[in-house]
Amino acid sequence: MNYKPECVNINDPDSAWVVTSYGMYRISVDSQGEGELVNGWTDWVAAMKDIEGNNHHDMFIGGAFAIVWHYNGSDFHMYEELSNLECLYNITGVSVKGNTVGLAGFLLSTSQGFVIRGYRE
């Protein structure tokens, strides 16, 4: 596993999912630190800060520039409507329960906090 771990999800009984500034890794429970790189980020989405999900086929990852990814077990989807590269909004917390996701963060210039609640249709 490359780079410093930022967050971890252990909803999968067979492995842990670890997000670093380089990407997301799946690490087997019997691992000694090595892991499989699931997705490497592009340069501008390197600062992911939290990962949460219902299970390893339904996870959300949030971070710098209010960028939010969803992982369905095989593919990643970025919610471009939430990302803002001009303003420095950071998502620092992600919570998922059933069909609801909660995102918490702040605007860097003012420390103004925000919470976004999303619902799956």
Mean pLDDT equals: 84
CATH fold type: Neuraminidase
Distance between the termini: 35 Å
Contiguous runs where pLDDT drops below 50 for at least 5 residues: none
Report the principal-axis shape: globular
| SSE series | EEEEEEEEEEE
Radius of gyration: 14 Å
Question: Count of DSSP E strands?
Answer: 11
- List the strand order in the largest sheet: 1-2-3-4
CATH class (first level) name: Mainly Beta
Care to describe what's here?
With 121 residues, the chain is mainly β. It has a single domain (5-119), classed as 6 Propeller (Neuraminidase). 0% of the residues lie in helices and 55% in strands. It has no helices and eleven strands. It has strands spanning 5-9, 15-20, 23-28, 36-40, 48-55, 58-63, 68-71, 76-78, 89-97, 100-107, 113-119. The strands form three sheets. Strands 1-2-3-4 form a four-stranded antiparallel sheet, with no helix packed on it. It has a four-stranded antiparallel sheet with strand order 5-6-7-8, with no helix packed on it. A three-stranded antiparallel sheet has the order 9-10-11, with no helix packed on it. A hairpin with a 7-residue loop joins β3 and β4 (36-40). The N and C termini lie far apart (35 Å). The model has no long low-confidence stretch (mean pLDDT 84).
